[in-house]
Amino acid sequence: MTTTVVAMGSMEYAKVREQEGLGALLDLVNSSRAMEVDGDGDGEMDGDNREGGRRNGGNDGNKRARDKVYRDHLSAASINADMKAGKLHQGSLRVGRFSPFEGWVGSESIGQDIYIRNRVDMNRAMDGDIVAVELLPESQWKAPNTRIGVGEEVGAKSGDGGDGGDGGDDVKTTHVAMIDPEEEAVAINMSSGSVKPTGVVVGIIRRNWRARGYCGSLLPPKEGVTYKDSHTMSVLVCPVEKKYPMVRIQTRQAQTLQDKRIVVAIDGWNADSVYPEGHYVKTLGNIGDKDVETEVVIHEHDINTAPFTPAVHACVPPLPWSVGEADLADPNRQDFRHLPICSVDPPGCKDIDDALHIRKLPSVGI
What we know:
Layout lengths: L9 H9 L12 H4 L14 H7 L20 H9 L3 E8 L7 E5 L4 E5 L2 H4 L7 E6 L16 E6 L13 E6 L22 E8 L7 E5 L10 E11 L7 E7 H4 L2 E9 L8 E10 L3 H11 L9 H5 L10 H5 L12 E2 L11 E2 L10
Parallel strand pairs: 10-12
Antiparallel strand pairs: 1-2, 1-4, 2-3, 4-7, 5-6, 8-9, 8-11, 9-10, 11-12, 13-14
């Protein structure tokens, strides 16, 4: 008897299961593969979503290459050659949580930080990436500013993201990586009083995108647009950490996810895309729920909440436990049992490890 084994890729498998009512599987596929799925042609994408419509063969029909928003990255060979010649400087990009449109690259070659003045000059680099930076002429050095909710302006095609364009061919100004494109840009400039070495990122030496993904929520739809499930839509996800740019994902469950905290992974960032492309990973729960927001904090700070291993438990003395002669003789421990000590741990906790004691000191005249 002959047995036939059918092999298929992740995208093909997801499309087969979609017919069985498991269309959400498509959301879990890397965005570079998800873009190969034909659009539904439902015509209900907004200005942000038309970019996805063009890529997915939607109603737009405009197949011409889009204008580049960012400059191309130099090759590894070019970076190495220019490094040796002293033309470029290497360092890790730091982006401030409260000033996400400016960055700093620590450079040992010049002995101080290099100031990156906007998202365009970051050139698709993200916080933590190891980058190659080209210093600008000293006449173009700038004094750092503190900016809140400000988008840098670059020339980009209508509908490329965040501008609510009509998806046509006219080149117009769009805001790059706004915290919220719907809000009016507001700038609070606090000049440091002196210019700093200023540069632009010309290459990425090593990406440090999180393997665990980024927590965030969907950007609310624009007026007159309704998120729907079962339709492939291109939507923007706003990360909880504002130092990261918004991420564009393709999803068939936009309506379900619009009030959720979700985790997304970044797959790539092309020079003609205002935002990085990514894909949906999982849902954490409803926005504002205490347990969900706690999970967000744990995820964002990469806190390990896995149960302790048997080896760890083996280090703990078995119950019941009491102070013994060996404990009292230990020079690294001091006996405070004669002092009135109050625990600040909640009732019913299993690890009473936080406590305080208050006493009046004779040297303090209170």
